[in-house]
Design a protein that fits this description.
This protein has helices at about 30-60, 85-110, 115-150, 160-190, 195-225; strands spanning about 20, 25, 65-70, 75. The chain has a single domain (about 30-225), classed as Cytochrome c oxidase, subunit III, four-helix bundle (Four Helix Bundle (Hemerythrin (Met), subunit A), Up-down Bundle). The protein has five helices and four strands, in the order ββαββαααα. Helix 1 runs antiparallel to helix 4 and helix 1 (about 30-60) packs parallel to helix 5. The N and C termini lie far apart (about 80 Å). Helix content is about 70%, strand content about 5%. The protein has a two-stranded antiparallel ribbon with strand order 1-2. A two-stranded antiparallel ribbon has the order 3-4. By secondary structure, it is mainly α.
Amino acid sequence: MTTVPPAISPSLPPPGGFFVGSQVDLDNWPAKLRRYRLGLGLYVAAMVMLFVAFSSAYIVRRGVPSFETATGTYSLNWEPLRLPLGLLSINTLLLAGASASAEFARRKGYAWEHGSREETISTSRWIGVALLLTLGFVLGQGIAWRSLEQRGLVLSSGARTAFFYLLTGTHAIHAIVGMVILAWIAFRYSRWLPSRRLIAVDLTAWYLHSMTVLWVYLFVFLMVA
């Protein structure tokens, strides 16, 4: 009796993809990726709402008169805050570079060369570049805060300065989260099955994209508000 081979599941990648030695990664990765993307989207939405709340509080606080002890009157004028635009611009480029590097890594993962040595090395390199650039962004933010501190602009200097530290500090915390994730992926990447690599890099790339867009918004907001 002739045995009819089982039909290939349509959820599997095309021939040549997802091979690890002689083993095939049978994870239902498209469905997993959709679920994880949904979770990431909800997290980013919550993060955006947090910064919208901070921005709204900033605008409301700016419309509240403050008492000036020097003149003994109330005024709507904020204390002067000269931002270190040079440093912040460099930090913006660093974060944009990290986002672009993560996108290159993500696109490498979709080249259907999963499991090959060339794909692993190339993607790992882009992940490493994204990690270094994100680290540079975080360190650059620390240098920017230090430059303000040296000019006597600390949290207690006034509402405008306090909001600057609040907005940029909260964003830096989320950037550090992305940096930790990148470090974890770089350390574990070669040990994972191809589908897990694809999902991890894909989500991290989209996370860094959202962090870059959010930072550009904050940068512009702080300059014009």
